[in-house]
Each structure stands twice: as C-alpha cells, then as structure tokens.
Amino acid sequence: MSTSSIAINKWFALLIILTAPLLYVIDIFIINIAIPTIKSSLHATDGEVQLVIAGYLLGSACFLIIGGRAGDYLGKKKVFFWGMCWFTLTSCLCGLCQTPAQLNIARFLQGVSSAFMVTQSISLIQVLFPVAAERAKAIGWYGITLSIAAIIGQMLGGYLAETHFIIPGWRLIFFINLPVGVAAMWAIQCYLRETERVTHVQFDYPGAIVLTASLGCLIYAITEGREQHWPLWSFGLMALSLVLLRFFIHTQQKNEMPLINLRLFKQPAFNIGLLAVLFHFMLHTAYLLMMAVFLQNGLGISALACGACFIPHALLFMLSSVVASRLLVRYGKRVLQAGLLIILVAFLSQIFCDAGPWLTVLFIAIYGLGNGLVLPFLLNIVLDNVPVEDAGAASGIFSTFQQTASGLGISIIGGIFFAVLEAKQHTLIYASALRYGLIAGIGCLMIVALMLYWLPRNAPADAAREKIRHYGE
After folding, report:
1. Which pTM value belongs to this model?
2. DSSP result, 106-163
3. Does pLDDT of 425 surpass 60?
4. N or C: which end of the chain has fewer CB within 10 A?
C-alpha cells in the first residue's frame, strides 16, 4: 500500500471515529430543545424531565474511566464497536418508552454505553496519529465536530419535536440514531484495525457501582425531592449519598488500581481547578436547558425556531474558541477570566431587561462568545499545575467531574428554575423563573472566577504544551 493510500485511510478512519462524539453531543442538545414536547407527551413532571438529561450525563460520568480501560484491555476497536452497538440499541429503547420512568432508565443506559464509545474515539486518535502535527490537526477536527454536533442537535431537536409522521416526532429524536449507528458499526468493522491489548489492566466495577449509587441518590433526591416538597425520604437519600461517597473514597484508598487516583487531590491547585470545572459546567448545562424552556413556553416560539435561536450562540462559540487558542499560551488564565466577564454581562442583561425573542437571542449569542473563551480550555488550566506523569489520570478525573457537574447543574439550578414555575404558568412567571435561575448561575460564575484567581500562575508555555502532548499519548 502506498504512502498516500495510508494517509487517505487514516483520515477516512478519523471520519468514522468522529461519529462517536457527534452522536453523543447531538443527544445532549437534541433533548434540551425537545424537553417541553416530551414532558407534554409523557405527562411527565418537571423533576422527571430533568432526570431525562441528568441520568444520561450521570451514566456517562461514572463509566468514563472504566470505558477507557476496557479499550486498553479488550482492544479499542472491539469496545468502540460494542459501545456504538449498545448506544444505538438504547437510543431505540428510549424511543419506545411509554412512561417517564422507562425513559429515565433507558437514558441512563444510553449514557453508560456512550462512555465506552466516546473514550475509544479519543484513544484511537492517539493511535492513528502518532506525529504531533497530525494529531493536533485531528484533535482540532474533534473539537469542530463537537461544535457542529451542538448545532445539529439544536436544529434537529426543534424540527423533529414538531414532526408527526406515524409516531410522535420526539420519538424520532432517538430513532434517528439507528441508521447512523448501523452505518458506523459497519464502517468500524470494515475499516478500523484492532489495537494491541494491555493485559494487566484491572476494572474497578464495585467502585463504579458505588459512585453511581452515590451520585444517583443525590441527583434523584434533589430533583424529585423538590418536586414533592422535600419529604423525609429525600433527606435520607442525601445522607445515604454522603455515606456511599465516603465508602467509595475509603475503598479507592486501598485499591491498587483505583477508579480515581486520589493522590491527585493532595495537590491544592488541582482541587481548585476541579472546583472551577464543577461550577462552570453546572451553570452551562442548566443555562441551555432554561433558555430552551423559556423560549418555547415563556415566549411562545416553536421548537424549530427555538433550535435556530442557538445557531448564533454556536457560531460565536467556535469563533471565540479559535481566537482563545492563540491567546492562551501568552495570557493564560486571563483569557478565561475575560470570558467569565462576558458571560456575566450576558446574564445581567437578561436579568434587568424585559427581553423579547430577538433580544434574548442576542444575549444567548453573547453568552456563547464568552463561553468559547472558557469551556474548551478548562482542561489546559487544570493540567498546567499537574505533573506530566499524572496528566492522563487527571484528564480522566476532569471528564468525570465535567459530566457529574452537568447533571448537578440540571438538578440544582434547573430545580430553582422549575420551582418558580410551580405557580400559575404565564409569560411573567417564566421571566421570573429565568431571573432566579440566572442569579444562581451568577453565583456559580463568581465561584469559578474566584477559583481562577486562586490558581497559581500558569506553567511556562513549553511545560504546558509538554503536559498536553503527554496526555495525547
């Protein structure tokens, strides 16, 4: 085979690999837009529709590290194939659900399968592109795919939610994964090569189960407890969550190959960085949900128009991300702090302005502009103060925190938003609910700003690049 053929195959393989992050992110954003329709169709409560999003993120968060290790032990191609297979099957299962409880269980299983699928896509990029320049280009396409997936998800969610062809349109949101998933599985089987297996890998399944139970108890207690006016069982579940978390930490300290390397938490700068990750992703995921509900139910626009309202947000996010990538090495965390300031302007504008649809779209776009300076680069900031040999473990913890934070944001900040809506639902109530949600978001924003302020000065540019290079390998 000629060198040019190998190069073509390599980039064609990347196209196949990118179907995993594409489907994963689409299924986050497509649900946000369709939440009002799903709630109406299944006669779900606000708490139950919150769990539709939070359960997906929780399932992904708790199995990310095991998913990565499974690829090392069983072969990345095999795990990628079966992860895609189960993601496709659980997507169809979501589309067949008849009750909110069934949908929440299916979404959790969909999230678990995504953890095995997405982790292999990142690993396979490292295998296919050993040369640093090509790997950087491939990872760049990975980032572009995430942005494109966000736009596709928002537009598809709006379009399919209003479509009624044989079955309710919101079910097509899940069934659309079937042809894409089947085509991806065929391509994986035909065009990807298996990787070498690492036989000494161990799986901490008990740790994953305990962590899932702990976070699940917390998220369920917050969402359903608020819905039912905080009965005693909700406080009992919160207490159980803390007990399980303490047990998880205890077992991780004794495990030779733990799910999470607790040694990293002895580094103050790493803890500060993770707190920034936690609160930023809480406000980010909750904001997108609140705006989708506000635009449709509060301002009365269609689901399709709602999806279109997020296109300027996505475009400005991509633009500012490109600009920030060039400024980050020189200015470090100040780039992120500038982004937080822009987000604050967007939130305050929405709080103090009685905005109609067009002005609301402008505020969402401004948020995207600021968020593009922050969200893609939190990993860099966290890794800047972590020793090179711990970069891989730190990135795994980062991903777990990111997904967990998103689920908590839906439950806590989203819970504040929905709590206000328990009154008679009309436009003024939705505007009031959004203000309370944004105030909670500003609280998170202030904590992120404080964490960035407390972080040590960035490591020298060469050292930072070396850590990211090591993570890529």
Report:
1. 0.84
2. HHHHHHHHHHHHHHHHHHHHHHH--SHHHHHHHHHHHHHHHHHHHHHHHHHHHHHHT-
3. no
4. N
Burial code of 338-369, b = ≥16 C-beta within 10 A, e = fewer? bbbebbbebbebbbeeebeeeebbbbbbbbbb
**What is the distance of C-alpha 467 from the center of its chain?**
23
Alpha carbon distance 64, 434 (integer Å): 32
Q: Which residue carries 């837009």 as its tokens?
A: 33
Domain spans, the chain: 1-199, 205-256, 264-473
Query: Could you give the C-alpha distances from 469 to 57, 126, 130, in angstroms and in order?
Result: 28, 10, 11
CA distance 222 to 237: 9
CA–CA–CA angle 247, 451, 396 (5° rounding): 50
pLDDT in tens, 183-241: 999 999 988 888 877 767 677 788 888 988 998 899 989 888 888 888 999 999 999 99
> Is 457 a residue whose pLDDT tops 70?
no
Say if residue 6's pLDDT is above 50: no
Query: Does 387 score more than 80 pLDDT?
Result: no
* CA separation for the pair 65, 158 (Å, rounded): 33
**Whose CA is closest to 285, among 415, 394, 193?**
415
Q: How many CA atoms lie within 13 A of 473 on its CB side?
A: 12
Q: Kindly report the CATH number that applies to the domain delimited by 264-473.
A: 1.20.1250.20
> Which amino acid makes up residue 461?
A
Note whether 1-199 and 264-473 share their fold.
Answer: yes
Whole-number pLDDT of residue 361: 93
pLDDT at 364 over 90: yes
Determine whether 3 is exposed, middle or buried from the number of CB atoms within 10 Å of its CB (0-12, 13-18, 19+): exposed
CATH class of 1-199: mainly alpha
